[in-house]
Amino acid sequence: MDEVSTSVARWAAKDPERAAVIDEYATLSYGALNERANRWVGALQAAGVTPGDGVLLMLPNRVEFIEVLVAMIRADVVPYFMNSNVTYYTADDVINLAVSTNARLLFTTRAFIREMALHKEVPFRVWCVEEVNVFEYPNTEEPLTGRGTDIVFFTSGTTGTPKGIIVNKSVFNLRLPTSSHVIEPRLHLLIKPLTFRGSMTTACNILQEGNTVVVARQSNPAKWMELIERYNIFFINLGPSDFMRWLDDLESIGARFPSSVKHIMTIGEPLTGALKSRIKGLPSHLRITDLYGTSEAGAITMINDHEWAGKDESCGRPVFFNTIRIVDENDRDLPVGEVGEVWVKTRYRMREYFGDPVATSETCVGDFVRTGDMGFLDEQGYLYLCGRKHDMIKLSGFQIFPGEVENVLREASDVEDAVVIGIHHPERMQEPIAFIRLREPMNAESEVKKRREILSFCESRLARYKVPAGVWFVKEIPLNAAGKADRRELAQRLVRNTSG
Fold this sequence. Notes:
This is Class I adenylate-forming enzyme family protein. The protein is an alpha/beta fold. It has helices at about 1-15, 30-45, 65-75, 90-100, 110-115, 195-210, 220-230, 240-255, 275-280, 355-365, 400-410, 445-460, 485-500, and strands at about 20, 25-30, 55, 80, 105-110, 125-130, 150-155, 165-170, 185-190, 210-215, 235-240, 265, 285-295, 300-305, 315-320, 325, 340-345, 350-355, 365, 370-375, 385-390, 395, 400, 415-425, 430-440, 470-475.
């Protein structure tokens, strides 16, 4: 990340009024961003934070996130990034993480403190960014030491104890060529939280190029459209579920797709075939990039829309000189077309899990990272994912990959989205249950008919044992902190509905 800090300073000297970061309420030029980051360095030093110390950052998308990030790079502290959604952590989670990381300071907001009910008797200092006047501190131009400080991304606690992923900050130095001339910056809208590795990597890339980061504070398609129209957004970075919600919103109000947007990159889960079909109806000038990656490995594969023909279900080929292996349960390489676990070799991999050497040794095997995703490669080296290893359904000796069944369900008439999970069965180990969101709500009688139609459609496309044992219609598919389908929540809903 040293290159990000250097780029901010370079653009501040070359074109100080150039827009660097924008949110719904504020705009920072490169000159202002550079100065405010330097003053945050002075504030950190005044608080007794020294190089190598830990600092917790629990901020939503807003301009202060970027200025504090640059300051932490310059102060050579270790940032611990946590999702700012209060539903993902308890006050005890925050306190325990601060204790385990020896963090001296927590950057957050008044809203977080209020909603979390985080009392003041905590073993660290709390700074709400709205309450700190950085101009009370000196403009400290701290020279970069190149210590190789770590960055730690903490997952949410939705599936247990928050998991920390340690990445060396050098992996964010993309070694982009220095621009020899000043051009008008392109504005890039980032939808997903900056606390996600993919979003932060994109933000670093944008700043290194001297372009403008526009961050959406709210997870609201109407607010995204306001930003797009106000700033003539060129590029958008978002998750597949965000994309689907946005398209739904545009269709519901009869709005046209904004003409300023020329490029969209999706991150997180790969695009589904059903979503790709909807995207094909968008303006022809629009370029779509589907990027598959994980927090542990960074970007893994990528595919652009012009490659979709004949590769609709693929998430692309390896990027950045990555190497992919498909491995069986005995860690042996599998041939083309056979399904196994996806292993990745990349210079952008994590170093380890925070405080968990056992999990590290299970995930990092030599130079490779085990992703936990199941998939296969075709003869051209394109990767196809079948689902998560731990989501695989075992039914009477058969293995069912939910992704295969979900793709078929999404092709059924009136189906907008689908998730399949395995539910315990006393005789057959597990059985597949489908949760489906329809494009339009139906009454009870129509739902009964639609359920029969969907099951009949599955029987025509799938082996009998893969056909869902039950179909439940839901208004929305719940999402977890990573913006992926929350299968755990769906399973809990099913238990509540069937036991009530």
